[in-house]
Every structure is written in C-alpha cells, then in structure tokens.
C-alpha cells in the first residue's frame, strides 16, 4: 500500500458504524468488518506518522488510564496512542484492591471523566471481575453522559482483562497478516497456542484466551495445547469452536506440545495459570485468606515445575513447517539461561526472532489509537483524509 | 444563555481587573464582581466545549499540582482545567510532611516554576499552615519573577486549604445559581450547612468554612449547625457575619440539625473535625508525638459516635421547604448502608439527588479554568471572542 | 543581543552537524562549536519565550524520563524542556535497582520508544554503570530504528551519570558566560572547584567531574581542591589536563581550600563522596552486602566530619578576587544554620548570591531543550527562523 487513499478506499468498503460511540471489550463482540477497520486504521496511522503527517484530532481532552496491575509496556502503548491523537494521559491509580464497587465505581468513573474522551482499563487479576468492572465503568459514564453530567461519553478500551487481551491479540494478528502477506493467505495455516513452563506464577489467561478467540476467525487450524490442569475458560473455548466452524478453520485441543508444534506455521508458546486455580485465588483474595493464597502459590509453582519439558526449544522449532514457524510472544518472555534458568523458550530461538517480536509489539500503539478513532468519530475515513489535506507536519520541517 | 456573546456582554459589565496576575486563595478576598466573573467564564468555557470550540490559550506551559494530601477528584479537576486551556500538568510530590519551609519552599517553588504558569496547591491537613504555605509559595515566585529568574509569574489556585475550599464552594454556588435560576433568586433562601455523623475521622473544616464564607454573600439565610464541640474557625464565622450584614441576609448558629433543616431551601450535611481538635493535632504532628496522635484519633472517633443522630434522613428531608430542599455534598459522602453502616445521609436521599450532585461536581474543572484565565489574561472577554473567531474544533470535524 | 537573527547568524558560523541524530552524553565528546551551538540555541529559545513566540516543533511525540534516583529539579527541567518543544513526558520508573541489564534493557528501551523522540536518563548512583547504561539504551534504540521497529531514533540526553552532569555544567557555564560578558572574557580567570563539608553522605561525583571536564576548555585557570581521600575519577582529571593544555589555561590540584579560593574569580564549593568509596559501594550493592553498605556509610560520614573546616565562609570569600568571586552551586546547598548545623556555605554568603544562583539554575530547561533541538533537527537555525515567521503566540493575545 503506497498512499493513504488505499486505506481510505478499504475503509469505505467496510461496515463498522456500530463502533461509533462504543467500547472495545472483547474481539468476539466485533464483526469481521469491524476488526478489519481497526487494522486498516492502525496501518493508516502508521503510514501517516512515517510520512510526518500529524494525526492530532483532539485539541484537548483526557485519556484516562486505569491499571489495576503493574504495567510498563501497555501503559506506554496507551500513552503513545493518546499522544498520537492529541489526548493527555491521566493515570487513575486505584491500586490492586478489589474494594471499589457499586456506588464507588459509578461515582469515581463520573468524577474523573468530565473531560475524558477515552478510558483505558487493565484489570486482569481476578477471574470474573475484570471485564465486569469495565462494563460497570462503561455503564456509569454512559449514564452520566445521558444525564447531562458529562459533555461527552468516554468510551472504554480493554487493555487486558480476565477474559481477553484485545489490544495484544489484535496486534499479534496484524503482525501475522503482514508476515503472511494478507488475511486472504491465512486460510488453512496451522497456529499452535501452547502453554510453556515459567518459573513464575499466576500469569493471566487473557492472552491464550484472546488468541483462540480471535485467531479461529481466519480459517486457520488453531491448536490449543497445555498440560492437564491448565485449562482456560470453557466459555472462551466455545467461542473458539464457533468461530472455527464459521470461518472454515478448526479448533483442536491437545495435551502434547509436540503435536501442536508439528508442521505449525505459527507458534505462540507462553505460560499461564490454570483457570480453576485463578478462580480459587480470586475467592481467597475475596475472603482475605492470605495463608490460603500463599499455600496456593506454592502449590501452583510445584505444579508448574512438573512441566519443565514444555519449552520452545530448537528441537521443537525444527518440527514446525520447514522448521521456520513464525514465533510469537506478547513479551516479556522467560528466556532459558537469560531471564531465568529454565523458561518458555531457548535463547537462540528468541534471539532469531527478536526483530519480528519487537515489530509484533510495535503495532499495539497504532491498534489502540485505531480503536479510539473508531469509537470517537462517525466517519474516520473522512477524518484521515482531512488530516492528510491539512498536512500539519508531526515534526516541524 | 444562547451565545458566547451573552457571557462576554456580562463580563464587560464587571470589574475584575485586580484578578489579573493574582492568586485565588480565599473567596472573601474577592469582590462580588470578581466572583461573578469566575462563574461567567466557567459557564462560557462550558458553552464553548459543548459547542466543540477549542479553548486552548496556551501553546506550551506547565500547571504544577502540589497536593499535600491524597486526592483523586480535585487532582482530575485541576488536570482537566489545565488541559482545557493547554497547560501540561506536572505533579510536585512532597508527601504529607510539614518539613518544607522557609528557604526550601522559596527554592523549590522557583526551581520547578521556570515554565510554570499556574500552581495549584492542596494543603488542608494542618490548621494555620495550609493557606500560609500557599502565600509563602506565591511570594517566592512573585519575587522570582521580579528578580528576572522566572519569565512569568506563576499564580496560585487554592485547591483546598485549612481555611477555605474556594474551587469547591464556587462550584457548589454555581450549581445553586443554576438550580434556582440566577443569583437574583437567592435572596431570602435558607441554606443549612450542618455537621453530619461519619465513622471516619479528621475531615477538613475547609468545606463548612468555605460555605459560610461564600454563601452568606447572596442575601441568603445561612444557618451553621453542629453538635457542641464542633466549632469552626472563629475568624471565618466573623467573615460570615459581616457578609450576611452586607448582603441583607443572615448568619445563624445552632446546635440542632432539625432547626437548621426546618424549611431550608438548600441543605449541606457533612462531617468535619472540631477546630480545636485539628489545632491540637497540628501541634502533635509538629512535636512528632505519634502516641498523642493515636490517642486523639480514638478520642475524636468516640466523640463522633455520640452524634450518630446527626444524619440526613428521609424524615429530616421532609421538614425542608416542600420536602424538596436541594441536597448538596462535596463528595464522596458517607452513605448509610452503602459506604458505611451509619453515615451522613440515607441511601434513598443520596440516590434521589445523585444526578444533581454529579452536576454540582462537574462545574469544578470549569471554575478552576476560569480562575486561571482571569489570573493570566488582562482581557479574558477579548480572549474568549478571539477563540470563537478562530473556531478551532476541540475534536476534529 | 536583540533579535533572533543575531542567534541565527551565530549558529550559521558553527559546525555542529554531527549532533544531528546523536546523543549528548559527555561534554568532552563534543567540539567547542557544538557546545557553543547548545548555548546559542538555549539563549534563542529563551529569547523567543520572553517574546511570546511558541517554539513548539513537535505536534506529538514522547520525551521519556528515566530517573534511577529521586529528583525534583532535574525532572522539572526535563519536563519543561519537553513541553517547550511540544513533547509529552512519560516517566519510566525502574526504581533504583541495578537489575535491568542486557536483554531487559534492550527490550524495555524498544518497547517504550515506539513514539519516543527523546530519552532523558539520570543514573548517577553507581560508578562505572550510569554512563554505560545510557550507551546501552542508546545502542538498543538505534538498532531498533535500523531494524524498522521504531519509526524514529530516540536520542539520549544525559541528565546526570556517574561521570558527567552535562546539562548542569552547561547551564553553569552559560551563567558564567553571561556574568562575565562572553566566552572571550574567560581566558585567565581562576575557577575553584572545591570540596565542601556536608553532613550527608554519598553525593555524586558528576558535578565536580563535569565542571573540571568542561570549564578547562575556556582558557581558565581551573583548580580542583579537596581533602586527601576525596579524589575524583582519574580519567576525568586526564580530560581536564588535556583540555587546559589545548585551551591555553591550566588545571591544578590542591588539598587546600584556602589556596583554591585565593584570588579566584569563580568558586564552586560542593560536597561529594570519594571516588574509591563510591566504587566500593557499587561493588557492595552488586553483592547485596547491606551490612557492608551500612558500615561504609558510617565510615564515610566519620571521614566527612574530619573536614568541617571545608566551608565557604565569609572569611574565605574575602580572599577571592576583590572579595567578590561568583559563587556557584548546583543546588540544593547545605547551608550552615539553615538546612543543617554545619554545611557547605555560610548563610550570609548564600543569601547574597541567591538571585544569581537561581538564574544559574534557570538555564537548565533551555540547555536541555537546545540539546534536543540539535539532536532532532538537521538545520535548527532554519527551524528557529520558521518559528519566528509563523509567530504563533505561546500565550494567546
């Protein structure tokens, strides 16, 4: 694609009018056209930045970031996206506590949103809570707007919850699309989303769930592999099954990493905690049972340690398609001999894929900005055109 | 009011030239015209935002926020106001310590202000200290500007001190004005500023003090009610008395919540700590007497608990004018059965007034921005006109 | 200098083309022309701000601040510089830990830099580490840019390291230049960089090192004075010697504060920790030897206490040139009887020089902004001219 017009032409063929004034919470709530609109605008924004065309669509306005877990990468991606469009980031630091609910959520959401256009939320710690919390915030500010309290309706971008990690998976997918030369080339490709051993504990399920919930929509042969006991949420598996059936692909499960990797075109080996254990942990936190939490942690680390053979080794990579499957990771990875003694991936494998991995990550600010643009503008294609016509340089020339 | 011109016409009738290059520290240091200028510009800015007209008057510049107490709402209001006008917020985090004084205050104030246009300060913890600190900072940067160190004089906005909470009370008042259809309709209206029970301890006196110091200027019948022992600063009561005399209203005190509520048009039931106790606490902190502080806290909680009947119940609300007094609160409120077992207000009362309460809060960013505009521009009416003529959209269209 | 053109004419006579797309890490890596370009642009930016001409050259973009030590002043100077040019500051908080190395540094540097134009780093705690860390970050993002991961190469500004403190010393020097009426007037002037007693422990060596590494380039007679045992890095002394030889000045060492002050035109009395002790501390931290660190701290405080006579007293000041040497300090100073019982400087001396000291500090935001402008624009003179022609007011008029 060489000109902005190419992106605009593509947008004009898609139906995404439901995204206007709406949140982005789960990829499977969005139509294929809507997802493609996100990727198209993400690429258009990147094209414009590469060509020094300012994409500042807001003269003022806040992008609120609400992180209920530590984060550097997602925080910077969100901040970059806001900055790209002209919003100023304000962090709402509520800590990791689960206390804020009901009245408090409604009130706080409104009190911080008088000039907020976007609220980005990361809340991935507790099963059954994160996505629900986002919907609670969304409902509160929607009501606030309808009641005339807020001049605008702030829309929500899910920056990772207990169910999905849409900004990550949409970036992963855009990377795949570009590596394979287009969505149309993905049909029949085999993607292995597999568990991998990590010495750390309690990694969120949102990545594997987000991956099987999204990647099954492209007609690919998606395999979810993990040791027994590392099941993900059953309802997301149901989503994956339906997606595969609809897209002409497949969704299979296995307890063998080797089987998943065999002839795979794409591999995504990554640690996560068992769904059941995460649910138990959520309850223990709810009960304030700190001894129980410690005991569970110990138990889970011991359970992990039984599966150290689940690693993305050079040997396993050789069994993939031509020995050259595209290796994906949301980063940071646990690299054997680098960031830990034994981890998710061999150092030589990681090293060989470093540049593509960084590129995979580089889509995220643009994907987030695209989600914002689609939620705040009724006709984003016209806006992009107008920005090109204005031609304000991002850096003065 | 339908056009920006209406606001500009109103401004042109007011005398507020002393506000230029000046701080906003206490409402009673300002003339009636000056207060009305704040409300008029606040409304004009809101009108412009609603009509998608950018009010960015600064291309660059910092708004420094200096919070010596935790805050989410005021922090966001200040950040929103800065953003609305084009200033970037930088937080100066000094913690709650009282150590910074004299040389250190002068130096730090200058060192952070090389590009600061506004300094917003919240310092409400210690009696006799907060407002004094603001004046110390103000003096330091004024001198710095005169000495050629600072290219501009950063002006101070009091975001809550030990004496007054002008941005809150000015927002409360703007809400009242709009609810009653204009300042001219307030004469003779009865406003009850009453203490209410809260299970928490040591809430600042700045709201009741700010309310009696401001609301007595409109010819209203202002009643301050609290249990014995919960007196506010005597000098602020003096201000209230003088105001009432000058405005043709009244200022009365009572130890009966029922008496205050009886036939009231407006009620503001809210917990605060006794002035004498806050003064004692300030001294204990000064002496580093942690045991003394703990003992005082215990004592105050016990004292509070003797007055659990001071609550804004449905029964009490029925005794107000037509049973429909306007219920005010600076939020968050201690809601009985919601945020605590027994608190300031019945859940059903709070619920009925939620939308107006949120609206009351929604004025604050505009009030703060108006204070900034009045302190930084000699002819704000001309600036508003120019912004309208430029017609830069806040969100690109 | 009266017009912007004067600065532009001066710039056009200087060769600084190597600064484009490059870092600013050590002053002695830069040519005389390059240093003069920094001062010229710093002054030009200040002139423009004083004349209400916006110098916003970025419509969007991030300035990342990475402080591995607490900081208020430098943080605000960096934020002010970013704001002046249109970049939004994002803080990358890595704490004081030394853990981040190798793979982690490379990855984090790239992950936060997708939209970063500038990275400002302060890392002065550990001998042999700070400057090395900056080069590691620089190399990582340079590679990231070459690999097509980053659309732009973020350049690094050293905001203080274990070796140099270039933004401080360049500001100090600009202050000296202005006080003495031009670089051409500095030849033969005596500058005393001397140790002074402070009751605190472990102050960085970067200021004295930066001063002798920079001030020896102007043909001045630079004297470094300290008690035995407070040596600075030998390699920086070598730099100072070579500079002095090349500039026609001199660089001498002494263990007598009186000798250094005698007939000095400029004095810079300031505490620092012995190089050898800092090196030892770095190793103790590396080994996690907390008892060792505590023991060392105690030992160093005792060592300091033996040199309480190293203070900038009124008596000593009288021995300087006409008793009126220019007193410099990077602030905050330990002022006897004000910020401590016995410290670096008499209160009356400090008081007399307060305004010039604050002015000295006021150059820093402009110096940092100048370094940024020189690293991001191939022809900064043309950019300044264009900004003047555009004539966008910083504050709307």
From TrEMBL, chains A, B, C:
<dbReference type="GO" id="GO:0016597">
    <property type="term" value="F:amino acid binding"/>
</dbReference>
<dbReference type="GO" id="GO:0004585">
    <property type="term" value="F:ornithine carbamoyltransferase activity"/>
</dbReference>
<dbReference type="InterPro" id="IPR006131">
    <property type="entry name" value="Asp_carbamoyltransf_Asp/Orn-bd"/>
</dbReference>
<dbReference type="GO" id="GO:0019240">
    <property type="term" value="P:citrulline biosynthetic process"/>
</dbReference>
<feature type="domain" description="Aspartate/ornithine carbamoyltransferase carbamoyl-P binding">
    <location>
        <begin position="23"/>
        <end position="176"/>
    </location>
</feature>
<feature type="domain" description="Aspartate/ornithine carbamoyltransferase Asp/Orn-binding">
    <location>
        <begin position="211"/>
        <end position="374"/>
    </location>
</feature>
<keyword id="KW-0808">Transferase</keyword>
<dbReference type="InterPro" id="IPR006130">
    <property type="entry name" value="Asp/Orn_carbamoylTrfase"/>
</dbReference>
<protein>
    <submittedName>
        <fullName>Knotted carbamoyltransferase YgeW</fullName>
    </submittedName>
</protein>
<dbReference type="InterPro" id="IPR006132">
    <property type="entry name" value="Asp/Orn_carbamoyltranf_P-bd"/>
</dbReference>
<dbReference type="InterPro" id="IPR036901">
    <property type="entry name" value="Asp/Orn_carbamoylTrfase_sf"/>
</dbReference>
<comment type="similarity">
    <text>Belongs to the aspartate/ornithine carbamoyltransferase superfamily.</text>
</comment>
<dbReference type="InterPro" id="IPR017702">
    <property type="entry name" value="Carbamoyltransferase_YgeW"/>
</dbReference>
<dbReference type="Pfam" id="PF00185">
    <property type="entry name" value="OTCace"/>
</dbReference>
<dbReference type="GO" id="GO:0042450">
    <property type="term" value="P:L-arginine biosynthetic process via ornithine"/>
</dbReference>
<dbReference type="Pfam" id="PF02729">
    <property type="entry name" value="OTCace_N"/>
</dbReference>
